[in-house]
Amino acid sequence: IHTRTWWKEATFYQIYPASFKDSDGDGWGDIPGILSKINYLSSLGIDVVWLSPMFDSPQIDMGYDVSNYEATYAPYGTVEDVERLIEACHVHGMKIILDLVVNHTSDQHDWFKESRSSKSNPKRDWYFWRPARHDEQGNPLPPTNWRGYFAGGTWTWDEHTQEYYLHLYDTSQPDLNWENEECRKAIYNSAIRFWLDKGIDGFRVDTVNKYSKHVDFPDAPVTDSNAFIQPAAQFWCNGPRIHEFIKEMNTTVLSEYTTYDGQPLVTVGELSLTPDPEDVLRYVSAREKELDMVFQFDVTHLGQGNGFQDKYDFARWKLPEMKRIVEKWQAFIEGTDGWTTVFIENHDNGRSVSRFGNDAPEWREKSAKMLALCFLTQTGTLFLYQGQEIGMINAPKDWSMEEYKDVETQNYWKEAVQSSESRVDPTCEERIKHGLQLMARDHARLPFQWDSSANAGFTTGKPWMRVHDLYKEINAEAQEKDSESVLAFYKRLLRLRKEYRDVFVYGTFELLDPENEGTFAFRKHYQERAALVVLNFTAGSQPIPGQGIERDMTLLASSYQKIALDSIQPFEGRVYIN
Ligand code: TEU
Question: What's the complex ipTM?
């Protein structure tokens, strides 16, 4: 039995500052814009706002490349604006957490500028600098053959000091050297204490399992004979000192603080590339005192190709795979002292309706409600991403690739075009385009659709990213007035999730009919209380899955107004309770 804690029952809502609400017409969302929507947030029924990076940044990776932890990106507002937002959240009974992005900084951060200035600079060792190797012909080679994220290698040559520096992400995002104690102290003071002292209630911890690398820097085995760079995550992910670092961060800094109302802070780590529950438990076991919970990405990986190189090469998946994944992480909390998270969207993924449902006009609302039923009834801490609650969908397929702004998208796209042009893989371009249309990170970054006025009411200026063509059909204002809207449905379900928290937030999970490819059904249990969730993931009517609806069950919520007893309609979802 899990002890009850505020953050287990809380619903978190992620705000992507660039795309939420612009208050001054420069085309970028901003903090005053978020403040102007505080009533919208509190009326949704959420408990915690997670604000994606609003720190100063050259925005090569949309703020996940921080150039100063103690300042804000000017178009977003000022540090005082953030203080006002913290205050406003608290006044409305909500908490607020920030992103902690400390695996790397921007190359524009003063620390890196100093580190890069000379080999003898005191901050030289705050990043990873290594000399070139040479092949048999004497040509320079990077220190390792590692492939990182964003379709590239992990080393960039620096002319000035004639060495390479390490970066798992873009070349503009050098990795901090957590092996260096002074560097860790600086991280704690600048990125963590500075904001905790301003009253935030915790952190979403970016790339939390990448701080420790194999610093002997071995080469990765060659699995792709066409390329120099090779998948190498085993050398830079979940490294030898990772648990020591996280424990230190917790005991020396985080544990000194509480939330604004005197409760323990909350931490949620981003834990990619860690599919094994035993490995995950080491991060979230309550007795280990590392993180409260982590994001685990099996669900959002559905459809992504195998491995890094093929991320956007769409791979067909079937519903039983999703069920097994859900079952795996629902079962995770049983018999352990670790907690789990529940989510289907964030700023790094395509919209769930387009990926897991159907975004055609006749099905998109149904799909959004069905997916809401699927995930809002699951055990764990619930995270929603802005726009999910109004059923926002992917960018239209007829947009050109130039509308996609994300550095990862652009790099994968370039790689695919080159591959097709050089005839190494002539169909690559078409395939990757399809994958990006479904799964690119850009889809989640389109401006929030507030109303049917110009630019969806997001900005009076020219939006940094194109607004969805369908904003007149899909927007918050219209849905506020419609008791059958996706938004109204989310609000209702969020209330029910609270009212029946025993079974929804803390209950145990039982998968029914696992092999059925059209429908998803599960039961939740908590002592005498049981809930039954039945969902149709297809555009055709299906028989009720499992053993049917038991006598003692009554309908708690349904995505259709009229239901049938022996069948479930296209993209219909229902939840029953005893
Ligand atoms: O993502 C970290 C990450 O490693 C990925 O697993 C992430 O899921 C991937 O980028 C998806 O394409 C975090 C942030 O969420 C992401 O936006 C940043 O680009 C990245 O860190 C670098 O800071």
Answer: 0.96
